[in-house]
Amino acid sequence: MVQWSKMRGESDMNRRVAVYILVALTVLMLVDGKYGLFDTTAPYRHLVRIEEAKGAGLDPGTPSAEKSGLLEEMLGPGQVLRLNNALGHINVTGTPGAERAQLNYNIYVYAANEAVGEAYLDRLDIRVVQSETGLDVRLVEPAKRPEEVHQVRLDVSASIPSEARVEVYNNMGTVRVENVSGPSIINNAFGDTTIKEVGGKLNVDAAYTNLDVTRVRGDLVVKGSYGSSSLRNIDGNVTVESDFRTTSLTDVKGDIEAEISFGGIAANEIDGDIKTKGAYTIIGARNVTGSAIAHTEYGTVRFQGIGKDMIVDARRSDVTIILEQVPDHRISLETENGTLTLQGTLSKLQPQTGEAGKKMVNAVLGAGTHSIEVRNVQGNVSVKHPPHP
After folding, report:
1. Of the N and C termini of the chain, which has fewer Cβ atoms inside 10 Å?
2. How far apart are CA 310 and CA 175, in angstroms?
3. Residues in Cβ contact with 377 at an 8 Å cutoff, skipping those fewer than 6 apart
4. Domains of the chain: which residue ranges?
5. How many whole angstroms separate alpha carbon 136 and alpha carbon 39?
6. What is the pTM for the complete model shown?
């Protein structure tokens, strides 16, 4: 029974990882094929490897024993509710004007039989440590878990003052946090992660999850590979680090800096600058008030409606730039072993052929207030104005 439960959890986890890898490889190899590149599967081969995942899945079956309880403690403005959990679902909601933290919890034991489950459940407890910084909450287990106990899960649903902060460290499960203060920290894996209305800085590390973040009144740092991220209505700067992950950003007041590989990033309605670095990645930015910079190898870059400078340093990538404003740029374009196309009002600019067959365009349009600099190797470059014929 123990082995079967463990194998089932590992199998589910491995299938999920395999799906992410298959999607990434399919998209990126199709992109590579468009450029006529050879032996494009070679760089991917070492990635098609599923590592053994420890522990049973999030749903090991029907619990053998369970108990619930309620904890109430004082929690002041600026203090933090810190939750450490190995497996379970976490739900934290901030309430304006509240002065206490209320935590409803459920402990589930999955064991060989009910008697073993009940016996082990009696040895479990929730520990709450109160300090000047806030509350530290965690499940306390004996040093060694009996072999007849397959898994233990802790679910917590908490109501705290909205002026308080949170630090959630959950190894596996779903996490939902809403209407809390910052700076706050959310670490979660293998379960959907939803965060709304954070009144300050937020740090998130969410691997193997679908991450949804809405309304952060401060800077946002997001890390975590595999899955997807949707980040909306961010008042501060955004930093993204991920592999095998798609990330969308909408309505960001500050700057964006992203380093990604084997995935994609799409940014729309950005008031600041955007700077991206990636490999085997699709990069898109639209309606950016500031500048846009991309460094990439194997992938695509598409900039549209960028208010200031654009710089692209690419290898084996397809680069498309669409100007929505009247051209007022210093243009410097260069591609080696690729096509260089200028469309619309820019079609009068004819590419020149340089050494080693490079295609180049150097021109000044209008007063040359902003710049467009593109360097590409084994990839195409297209610049167009106006956006519609």
Report:
1. C
2. 38
3. 314, 315, 316, 335, 336, 337, 338
4. 2-47, 60-182, 219-389
5. 53
6. 0.85
